[in-house]
Specification:
alpha+beta, 60s Ribosomal Protein L30, Chain: A, 4-stranded mixed β-sheet, 5 helices, 50% helix, 15% strand
């Protein structure tokens, strides 16, 4: 992943457009707020399958990006140790998709 991707991810967090953690991210997806879902490399298969299912359920078409960073490495990038997050702004989501 490009460092610009992680800079933009940090900016989205500071702007309040990021939902992290299982319950918060799932709520954003089910509530129609999420535009992109990001998973750390060391999340469980169960969590990965759950979010893949939710992002495509009932015609939802939320893109999922699986990072090459672990949850601990994500803490250094966005300041929070998390395995799953959603980007809840279309502009930030489109910008992040460019750097994938």
């Amino acid at each position: 992943m490009d460092s610009k991707f992680f800079n933009l991810l940090g900016l989205a967090r500071r702007a309040g457009k990021l939902a992290w953690g299982h319950d918060t991210a799932l709520f954003a997806i089910k509530g129609g707020k999420a535009h992109l879902c990001v998973l750390a490399s060391d999340v469980s298969d169960r969590l990965k399958n759950e979010f893949m299912r939710e992002c495509t359920y009932n015609g939802r078409n939320i893109k999922i990006i699986e990072l090459d960073k672990t949850m601990d490495e994500m803490k250094s990038v966005i300041g929070v140790r998390t395995g799953v997050m959603t980007i809840n702004d279309e502009g930030f989501a489109n910008g992040l998709k460019k750097y994938e």
